[in-house]
């Protein structure tokens, strides 16, 4: 696997500077050292591991777009991981952009090929990834996180929920799914793109070293993905459905689901069903599953 933006794709295997001079170069922010690609490969790419390759690039438009293209061209195997120190065209759900200063977070995509799982259960992959990310960060960063259905990672700052991460899954050819993950790690208050954003450091994380954070998230993802695949993608048998519901801050709240076609539903989020859909109980006494849409947490009146 090799990134498309080869002109700027050379990783820095160590943590030293690159001699960019006094004018402030690529590593001038000493609080944000580069990832150690060599150490990441040594720790993650093993014979019995899911992860087949770890590539770190300095800058790209979107790791998801790059890895989808590589997968469709037959140039990436299952377990390929593409990490960018900086993205300038990162994408979230509903074509939203995701941008952050270089080395202020973790921006990466992974290629999964769940051959033994029926395609109708692949919709669980973003939710599975959310559980894995939250689990890994709890272990490595010591920060409490919550999941907003379907794919946002929330932290609490001053009693308010802020988005610190997001997940985007895309098909990659007939047998693959690329899952992209963005996590704000050391983003400072004056760097927040919107007031509702947050970061692990602002939430009081005990550790903001991106190397162990990335290792922890990928190991957690490998564990959850393996368990889910062994269960044939069954969310109940694998424990995924119960674990997701336990960590989902959307459940039990009144929300507005903004749906395609300029339609919206207001109701209480009462469950995540077997297909990964959010079930809303409306004021008319109807339970309506939502499989796609934008969810807004409404404040109690």
Describe this structure as you would to a colleague:
With 301 residues, the chain is an alpha+beta fold. The protein has helices at residues 37-44, 63-72, 125-141, 210-230, 240-247, and strands spanning 53-57, 80-84, 90-91, 97-98, 105-112, 146-148, 152-157, 160-172, 176-184, 254-259, 263-272, 278-282, 287-290, 294-297. The strands form three sheets. The protein has a seven-stranded mixed beta sheet. It has a five-stranded antiparallel beta sheet with strand order 13-12-11-10-14. Helix 3 (125-141) packs across helix 4 (210-230) and helix 3 crosses helix 5. It is globular.
Order of strands across the biggest sheet? 1-2-5-9-8-7-6
Strand content: 25-35%
Approximately how much helix is present in the residues? 10-25%
> Pairing-aware structural class of the strands and helices?
alpha+beta
Q: What is the β-strand count?
A: 14
Return Rg in Å.
19 Å
- N-end to C-end Cα span: 52 Å
* Mean pLDDT across every amino acid position: 89
The main sheet comes to: 7 strands, mixed
Order of H and E elements: HEHEEEEHEEEEHHEEEEE
Broad shape:
globular
Q: Count helical runs.
A: 5
The unreliable regions are: 4-27
Biased composition (Basic and acidic residues): 1-13
Keywords: Biotin, Ligase
Pfam families: BPL_C, BPL_LplA_LipB
Domain BPL/LPL catalytic: 52-229
